[in-house]
Amino acid sequence: MKVLRFEKATLYRNGILALLLASIALIVHNIFGQNGFLALRRQQKQLHTLQHQIQQLNEENEQLEKQIQALKSDPAAVERLAREQMHLVKPSEKVYMLPEKAPATPPTASTTSDPQPQQ
């Protein structure tokens, strides 16, 4: 039976190399892994976005609650809403409605003044 002899320097160098490779693998996993640093940053950004959306929705809910209370208690608010959205008027009033402006459209290729090619 042969006895394997390793030199101390070779064992030390191979041990350091193995520890270095294991350290690199752990660092890469901590940065790019499923629960790594980049995933954490992505989740924090998503959390911030969701918190902002929640804040906007809460503000919108408050405004709607104020509008509901105004419609329940203020006859002027009901009248304003009826006039704006339903175009209702009192019997003695006259309403003049103007046509809405159409947005200006740029000329297309078919409406240019280029002459048609002759055949």
Summarize the model shown.
By secondary structure, the protein is mostly helical. Helix content is 61%, strand content 0%.
Which runs of at least 5 residues are low in confidence (pLDDT < 50)?
A: none
Estimate the global geometry from the Cα principal axes.
elongated
Q: For the report, how would you describe the main beta sheet?
A: none
Number of strands: 0
Would you tell me the structural class of the helices and strands? mainly alpha
Measured between the Cα atoms of the first and last residue, the distance is 100 Å
**Average pLDDT metric:** 85
Rg, rounded, reads 37 Å
Tags for this model:
mainly alpha; 3 helices; elongated; 119 residues
Any overview of this molecule?
With 119 residues, the protein is mainly alpha-helical. It has a domain at 8-89. The protein is built from 3 helices and no strands. The longest helix has 37 residues, at 37-73. It is elongated and about 115 Å long.
